[in-house]
Amino acid sequence: MDEWMWSGETGRWHDVEWEGRGQLQQVSAASFTPLWACQHSAEREAAAVQSLRRSGLVQEGGVATTLVESGEQWDWPNAWPPLQQMLVEGLAGCEADGAAELAEDLALRWLRSNHRGWARDGVMREKYDATRPGESGGGGEYTPQVGFGWTNGVALWLLERYGDSFARSLTAPASSEKCTAIGDGG
């Protein structure tokens, strides 16, 4: 994976087009899921942490799947639960400076988005809009589903690990709940 997909220049893993095009340059949440394997050098982990911070994917309501506005369900501004879990777990397992803090930050962004939607609508969503916490994601060929198992599972997994921090974030003054996107999109 590292031989074919890693780029030291971008600090992330890339999809590969096998028919002569090499590494594709589009950034996506999947560009950072190899962190989940926890099998990388400290230098690669540190580069990936910084690259994710700069990517433009990290939004108020979680990590967007891509920056491509196609109207499809796997693109901007949708955020999918399995990718959130893989990123948080991967970052939490890294020894790079700032990785554990970024893992917790991403977990809390996702949990706040889930909580906001659930408190308002009484349901958990299949996917969420990373730019509008609590709002359903959209796009694709069907109406987004509610009560979705992977959303529930990821929320419970995150609560098991970050529940105390999440509870504190809900009882903190309202101004501290305000999160903003990080990164410059580059």
Strand neighbour order, sheet with most strands? 1-2
| Helix-strand sequence | HEEEEHEEEHHEHH
CATH architecture: Alpha/alpha barrel
Number of domains: 1
Strand content of the residues, in percent?
5-15%
What kind of sheet is the major sheet? Answer: 2 strands, antiparallel
Strand element count: 8
| Overall geometry | globular
CATH class division: Mainly Alpha
Taking Cα atoms only, what radius of gyration do you get, to the nearest Å?
16 Å
Overall pLDDT, averaged?
88
Question: How many DSSP helices?
Answer: 6
Low-pLDDT ranges:
none
Q: How would you characterize the overall build of this protein?
A:
Belongs to the glycosyl hydrolase 37 family. Keywords: Glycosidase, Hydrolase. It catalyses: alpha,alpha-trehalose + H2O = alpha-D-glucose + beta-D-glucose. InterPro entries: 6-hairpin_glycosidase_sf, 6hp_glycosidase-like_sf, Glyco_hydro_37, Glyco_hydro_37_CS. Its EC number is 3.2.1.28. With 186 residues, this protein is mostly helical. It has a single domain (2-177), classed as Glycosyltransferase. Helix content is 42%, strand content 9%. It contains six helices and eight strands. The strands form four sheets. The chain has a two-stranded antiparallel sheet with strand order 1-2. Strand 1 and strand 2 form a beta hairpin. Helix 3 (81-92) runs antiparallel to helix 4, helix 3 (81-92) crosses helix 5 (149-171) and helix 4 (99-121) packs across helix 5. The longest helix has 23 residues, at 99-121. The chain starts with a helix and ends in a 9-residue tail after the last helix. 39% of the residues are buried.
